Amino acid sequence: MNKKDDKLRISILGSTGSIGTQALEVVDDLKGVKDIEVTGICGGSNIRLLEQQARKYRPRLAAVADEKKAGELKTLLADTATKVLAGEDGLIAVATEPSARMVLSSIVGFAGLVPTMHAIEQGKDIALANKETLVTAGSIFMDAIKEHGVRLLPVDSEHSAIFQSMQGGRRGEVKKILLTASGGPFFGMTEGELKNVKKADALKHPNWSMGAKITIDSATMMNKGLEVIEAKWLFGVGIDDVEVVVHRESIIHSMVEFCDKSIIAQLSLPSMKHPIQYAFTYPERMPSPDKEVDFGELGSMTFFRPDYENFRCLSLAKEAGLAGGTVPTVMNAANEVAVGMFLRGEIGFLDIADMVGRAMDEIKPIKEPTLEEIIETDREVREICQHF
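Structure tokens predicted for 1-deoxy-D-xylulose 5-phosphate reductoisomerase (388 residues):
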């Protein structure tokens, strides 16, 4: 294979978000070590940042879901060769840009599902940071991965850690997955204490810098529940084979226990740039400018069992994962609506779990849904939840 064939051409879905911006930093970090080209980008409302990215990386395509915002970007980039597109068709075009070999799927929420599915159908390798695609359509998603023979590389720090740890044995030798959680900003709080927490408190994550939605999911422990379901599909294990362990320091990103009771873990300082870089360079490892773990300075690491009673979202997610069908779709859609309402100050913190639980109780599931039925279920749940 010649040098030109080794070039990694990537499209980034969600380039202006937390994962997307760090992914572009990784592209910069790898200059001179790996040949990478950014072929397409898409973002949300931060049009000025999207313009800066387009000017710096000169992608063939840039897309914005909102038609008006896309018009603004088109005007800003009129003097460049980057073509600006709008709407879901624009996101799909970025995901299927012909020259791209890999798509980083980092759009937050259900919105990432359809463009990522189109990327798979076009034979693109997937670096997956959008957990909702597996949560809502895991069976269909994994079947498409196998059918089209593409590589699926996890970008969530926990699932990247599991992926790396599994290289120490065979899949058939895995006894269980130990999925670590920081516990979020409200670790140890009772229901009475959680009742009056504010948005500003919920957005203060102790270890990670993330977008607002994911940070709230971390505070409710829903994020960990979503990751349990994601692990089921990524690694072919049962929901009950994934054990959540609260690890406050976020140094061990997850572990795998094998049948001989040996446990292999992946450790690094809390930084999403590590799993992003590993997905971009796999199966190789390349130098990183990230700081290394100083165990003398760290001193100790702590571990706790999760509190399923006061952080009900974790219990609800496990329940949805066990039920299967469209139940995870219902759970995810209700959570996205509830988190949005909490961020707007319309409901309280504990109301998030209440809304998710009510939706799961009231909406009749479909056992083996098609992709169209999953999309329709998501739409229906969002509409119903607005009237709870």
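The radius of gyration is 20 Å.
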